[in-house]
């Protein structure tokens, strides 16, 4: 998925298989804790299976190389 010019989100692993979750508790505090736990698990799974890729334009890379070769920083 392209996020911006030169910035792409790439999937690196297999998609998470659908999980069978236990029913949520009827008790509000326990239910809230279960939902938070599921959200954190989903976010962690997403981050484990995706990377952000940055691509610089060729002209920028060539300019940096020239600067390094000439001793300019």
Oligomer: single chain
* Structural class computed from helices and strand pairing: alpha+beta
**How are helices and strands ordered from N to C?**
EEHEH
Number of domains: 1
Any idea what the shape is? Answer: rod-shaped
Helicity range of the residues? Answer: 40-55%
How large a portion of the residues is in β-strands, by DSSP E?
A: 15-25%
State the strand order across the main sheet: 1-2-3
Radius of gyration equals 22 Å
Q: How far do the termini sit from each other?
A: 34 Å
Q: Tell me, rounded to a whole number, the average pLDDT.
A: 83
| Secondary structure tally, helices | 2
* Number of E-state strands: 3
| Low-pLDDT residue intervals, each spanning 5 or more residues | none
For the biggest sheet, the summary is: 3 strands, antiparallel
Region (Disordered): 1-36
Pfam family, one: DUF1676
Question: What's a quick, concise take on this entry?
Answer:
The protein is of the alpha+beta class and 73 residues long. It has helices spanning 28-48, 58-70, and strands at residues 2-4, 7-11, 50-54.
Please tell me about this protein's structure.
- InterPro entries: DUF1676.
- Pfam families: DUF1676 (PF07898).
- This protein has one domain.
- The protein has helices at residues 28-48, 58-70, and strands at residues 2-4, 7-11, 50-54.
- A three-stranded antiparallel sheet has the order 1-2-3.
- The protein is rod-shaped and about 70 Å long.
- Helix content is 47%, strand content 18%.
- With 73 residues, the protein is α+β, with helices and mostly antiparallel strands.
């Amino acid at each position: 998925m392209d996020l911006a010019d030169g910035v792409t989100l790439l999937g690196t692993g297999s998609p998470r298989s659908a999980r069978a979750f236990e029913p949520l508790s009827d008790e509000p505090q326990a239910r809230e804790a279960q939902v938070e736990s599921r959200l954190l698990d989903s976010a962690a799974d997403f981050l484990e299976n995706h990377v952000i890729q940055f691509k610089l334009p060729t002209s920028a890379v060539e300019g940096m190389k020239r600067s390094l070769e000439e001793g300019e920083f």
